[in-house]
Amino acid sequence: MAYIQGKITVTKIILVRHGQTEWNAQKRFYGWTDIGLSAKGGKQARLLAENFPERQVDLIYSSDLTRASDTAAYIGKQFSCEVRTDRQLREINFGKWEGLLYDEILAKWPEEMRVFLSRPDMLKIPDGETFSQVQKRAVARISEIADANAGKNIVAVTHGAFINVLLAASLRIPLRHLWSLQQENTSVNILYYREGSWQVELVNGTAHLGIDEMANTH
């Protein structure tokens, strides 16, 4: 369980990015397109579950997209915990950019790509979401989950942009500086929630991935 500080109940939220997919490896833009884990992604998820940074997990939530729910399933098996899928935990919707490579997007939408890289807070993806919209969705849903499960250790397996916009809100980083944050596949982020406010303990933790590398050197 998370702890109670004085009379204030503190809830721990462990945000996890899904394991690698083939489209990650190809550096394709995708958000709502449902792509499963690659062989490497499955291995990353297994290493995460077997070396999870928390000894107790009370609840596991996951984006309803396969790459997230399959990553969550490894954690659920490790802790004998059911996974609850939630559409509100999805990645940003990349609209017409879904499935395209950087160069393909740059060729057709050069100005939008410039804004994506320099002022993500001002970007409107064609037929997609804005980062502001995703941030509002992320903050609202994770806050609801925390309020409904006060004092518990909660895992939420989701996506890179979703996690970064939530971290930006928690750290009071303007969205224009969103790319100052990085999320590797199966990275772990730990936040504490109390009475509507957030405290960040860990960002982009990947120690579990190094365990396999160390084993191969001995």
UniProtKB/TrEMBL annotation:
Pfam families: His_Phos_1. This is Alpha-ribazole phosphatase. Coiled coil: none annotated. InterPro entries: His_Pase_superF_clade-1, His_PPase_superfam, PG/BPGM_mutase_AS, PGM_Phosphatase, Ribazole_CobC. SMART domains: PGAM. It comes from the Bacteria. Its EC number is 3.1.3.73.
